[in-house]
Amino acid sequence: MEKNYPIDKVVKPVQKFIRHEKSGGLVLGICVILALFLANSPFSDQYFEFFQHKFGFTFDGIPYLEYDLLHWINDGLMAIFFFVVGLELKREIVAGELSNPRKAMLPIIAAAGGMLVPALIYFSMNSSGEVSNGWGIPMATDIAFALGVLYLLGNRIPLSLKVFLTALAIVDDLGAVLVIAFFYTSEISTVSLIAGFSFLTVMYAGNKLGIRNILFYAIFGIIGVWTSFLLSGVHATIAAVLAAFTIPADVRIRENFLISKIQTSLQKFSAIDPNDKIPTLTNEQLHYLEEIKTDANNATPPLQRLEHAMHPFVTFVIIPIFALANAGVTVIDIEFEELFSTNVALGVALGLLLGKVVGVVGFTWLSVKMKISPFPEGMNVKNLFGLGLLASIGFTMSLFITSLAFQSPEYITQAKIGIFAASIIGGILGYALLSRIKK
After folding, report:
1. Which of 54-58, 211-215, 359-363 has the highest mean pLDDT?
2. pLDDT for 209-240, tens place per residue?
3. How far apart are CA 7 and CA 147, in angstroms?
4. Under the phi-then-psi rule, with left for phi > 0, alpha for psi from -120 to 50, and beta for the rest, what region is 275?
5. Do 206 and 214 form a contact (C-beta atoms < 8 A)?
6. Which residues contact 181 (CB under 8 A, 6 or more apart)?
7. Phi, psi of 99 (to 5 degrees)
């Protein structure tokens, strides 16, 4: 019988909340609202000044890696987010929805349309000057928010739609990573870049040699790859994705052999006379439990073990902190003329809301008509429109690319207004349309 402790009354509800599919989107939404409140409250100055505090290292009186808090969040914490994105990408490519070329083709084409059309809409309205740098902003879909809205609809939504949107968002994330890598980098330091790829080579070699110790990959990934890329001029989040692809995705023990070994260990464990009066275990009992634990670890790919362990931290710590730091926009003092002094806000809003729907729905429909790939079971044009609207939710990735695209506070504010407007409208319309689907 499992013993319950007083702390379980707090821990278990929290664990249940974390495991729920809707929770990540809910926490992210609360943090966006809180950031907007702080940015437009009497504490506005303190809110913005807080993220300008600088942190770094000093050696012999010379500062190294001295950046403000906002920079550490966007280049440091978000690197962990992109590391988990990289793990998800590799898992999907190795054994998930993207491993079967025929099944993967439709979400890949849909994601390509959902990136290309928004970028073209934005660029057609902002084709010159600094504002033209924002073409990547409406390309991204926020997987946490989009899936959060979809899961609010419960089991009336066919599983195939959830799988399709997940695969689409993952391909979308890969597209965003490539866009950042090739178009949103500063001047490149060749020496630092060579050092970064050297550390990646060591991690890849460790994978092939059979090294499965997570500490090995953490040391070379953080101290070596991430630091080198941070100093190279290529955005540090790219280092996180590349490092994720070196994590082993294979197992030492297959499932059938695992079951056999655990059954043998359990039989030996149960053969030992239990002593319920003593709350501790004998050395022999500990030995068999450790054997079961080792076998279970050997049957779990390090990639999935890392992804499973880090996902709650990313969803409930890193993304909320990023939202608190980046979603704050002061709208009280903004004049209508100032908001639309350029086409940034309109380009982002139309790119997300119109471009995503046209791109996702149009490219998918054409693929089906051209018989490249059939509709997944349970999908039709109506609920495809609903998914297209949910794909227009672009909070996290769009805000992140905004921080890379613009230096001007005016353009950053306009882009954020466009992101918020399109994401809210797209989320509400997508939910309303999909909610009419019969169970």
Report:
1. 359-363
2. 988 888 899 889 888 888 888 788 777 777 88
3. 31
4. beta
5. no
6. 234, 235, 238
7. -85, -25
For residue 279, what is the enclosing H or E element?
Answer: none
Q: Residue 314: exposed, middle, or buried by beta-carbon count in 10 A (0-12, 13-18, 19+)? A: buried
Question: Greatest CA separation found in the chain?
Answer: 81
Q: What number of helices (H) and strands (E) belong to the chain?
A: 22, 2
Neighbour tally for 287: CB within 10 Å: 13
Q: What integer pLDDT is reported at residue 352 of this predicted model?
A: 93
Domain boundary assignment for the chain: 23-67+104-156+167-175+301-434, 255-298
Closest CA to 202 of 228, 178, 181, 180: 228
Q: Tell me what percent of the residues of the chain surpass a pLDDT of 90.
A: 18
Give, to the nearest 10 degrees, the angle between helix 236-244 and helix 78-95: 30
**Residues 284-309: what's their mean pLDDT?**
84
Write the DSSP string, 152-173: HTGGGS-HHHHHHHHHHHHHHH
* 23-67+104-156+167-175+301-434 CATH fold: Na+/H+ antiporter like fold (1.20.1530)
At 70 the three-state DSSP class reads helix
Question: What is the predicted pLDDT for the residue at 88?
Answer: 82
Separation of alpha carbons 160 and 166, rounded Å: 10
Strand, coil or helix: 333: coil
